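User: Please predict the structure of the protein below. I'd like the answer in structure-token form so I can feed it into my own downstream comparison script.

Assistant: Understood. Taking the following sequence of 147 residues as input:
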Amino acid sequence: MKTATALALVSAASGAVIEQRQTPTSEFDVTNFSASCQPHSVLCFFGFNVATMTTATSCGLTVQGPDLLPAVGLTGCEDPRFSWSFGRAGKDGGAHALTVTWEATPGGGNLTGSHLIQPAEVVLEFHGSVSDERYVGPANFVISPLQ
């Protein structure tokens, strides 16, 4: 009888752990987001950290600009289960979007969310003969809901 009770408790505890791991997160916490183009250069830099309730990683990329923040197609992070993209949002071209995708379950089950970056959060600075764009909005934000 004691063995049956112990096995029932172990099974219940194991089931709770498995269920907790399978529950998808409802948001991405983005920290230290930066995007900028280097004055008098052809390079632009992107970098940020992203976390779910169960895992975290760093993402970044250096690309050719030269002056305006370029669109970045889907590219990976340090943790290969994460990927991200950046680009203009909408037809007016003023806003940008950062999109993050996470393979929440192996072999499928991706979660994706986007953060809209308002036109006021990206500035164009003039440096004599050249100008460059950079992000000046909050470095930390939450992306939700995820799909």
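That's the full token string. The chain has one helix and ten strands.
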